[in-house]
Amino acid sequence: MKLINSFKIAIKSLFANKLRSALTVLGIVIGVAAVISLVSVGRGAQAGITSTFQQMGSNVIFVQPRNPDAPGMAGLSPAYATASLTLDDAEAIADSHLVLEVAPTNENFIEIVADDESVFGVMHGSTPGYQEAFSYSLASGQFISDRNVARRDTVVVLGHSMAEDLFGSRDPTGQRIKIKERWFTVIGVLEPKGGAFMGFSMDDIAVTPITTYQTRLFTQRTTRGEDAVQSIAVQVSGSEVMDDAIEDIETILRKRHRIDPGDKDDFVVVSQEQILGVFEQVTEVFTIFLGAVAGISLLVGSIGIMNIMLVSVTERTREIGIRKAVGAKRRDILLQFLLEAAMLSLGGGGIGIIVGWLVSKAISLIDLGGMKIQPVVSPDIVVLAIVVSVFIGLLSGTYPAMRAARLNPIDALHYG
């Protein structure tokens, strides 16, 4: 019965100062909404990266050039990596009995023009193995062939989004497009794949024979004067042979590159699972950072609750004295002010959850050049937000409540 009365008094007190209570609740609303929306964005980014890698399967290995003289991971960055891989390296890897497909790939950002339309996207130079290694399906036409690679044909296969941007609902197969002032014939269009990697949609790509890319678009040479390959995707027979395949590839390349035992490799071989693990760690740190930034808003909100409760104690000093004079105990006064603080934080937390969910939905509608972030609002985020908001309310209200409970009834009655 006392608890019910305390609730009634708390509600009456909060509604007696509507504007003040609303402004206090606003701090918690902003804090909880920020936590939910920002953490959900971080988790959405992590889920998107995971989904993208899963679409390519778990049996893909990537071989990339590396500067053996650069420290740590710096050797993998474009600023440090040296051109050390070639088409001959890819063909040698393809001879391994553990390998199903090999896709040597070069890439660069490029503008593609068709009639009066132009788009920016990623140009990939590769081989027929690209389609299988990266799990693409054809919507129309055909993919590049070994003959196209051998003849250095100026043909191109467009990603789904790129084809739509250039030709709308028309089938672009057989149409001509201009790339770096050269005319290319569209021979196929890929099925929509969805997902994004490194901030770019997997459907905003164009694929041309790697020999055409090397000789007609972007020329890059190794230190030995051969046409360079930026990376080699290797699809193996199964995830169970991944370690053996990596060891086999390393042996082949060390022999081809004449690397003596004990010397550092000028390449690196990593599995898709290893790359995914690195990205998951990065996105997890990113999510924690976003949550910490949003947590500052909750801290500010808690200070607001403490401040308003201290003001309330001062204003209601005579009321506290009267209640104590008629028999109210210290725990009753303590409970009274704790309930008021908890109701402020709980109300703000509830509204904040709704606002955070709406903000997350709004973010999912934003189109960043064909790429969308899909925030993931999971139950644990909501539960955490509620628990934290109530905890902050109780913690912020503890000192004002204790101060109110310790007031001397006689002094309180004489206040003001």
Please supply descriptive tags for the structure shown above.
single chain, 416 residues, alpha+beta, 2 domains, six-stranded mixed β-barrel, 13 helices, elongated
Q: How does this structure look, described?
A:
Strand 8 (196-197) and strand 9 (200-201) form a beta hairpin. The model is unreliable at 73-80 (pLDDT under 50). This protein folds into two domains: 2-53 and 278-413, no CATH class; 83-265, no CATH class. The protein has a six-stranded mixed β-barrel. Strands 8-9 form a two-stranded antiparallel ribbon. It contains 13 helices and twelve strands. It has helices at 2-16, 18-55, 87-94, 129-133, 146-151, 160-167, 210-217, 242-256, 272-315, 317-325, 330-364, 379-405, 409-413; strands at 60-65, 99-114, 117-126, 138-141, 155-158, 176-179, 182-190, 196-197, 200-201, 205-209, 231-236, 267-271. The protein is elongated and about 100 Å long. The longest helix is centred in the last third of the chain and has 44 residues, at 272-315. It has 416 residues and is an alpha+beta fold. Helix 2 runs antiparallel to helix 9 (272-315).
Summarize the structure.
This protein is α+β, with helices and mostly antiparallel strands and 416 residues long.
Low-confidence stretches: 73-80
How many structurally independent domains?
A: 2
Q: Average pLDDT across residues?
A: 79
Overall, the morphology is elongated
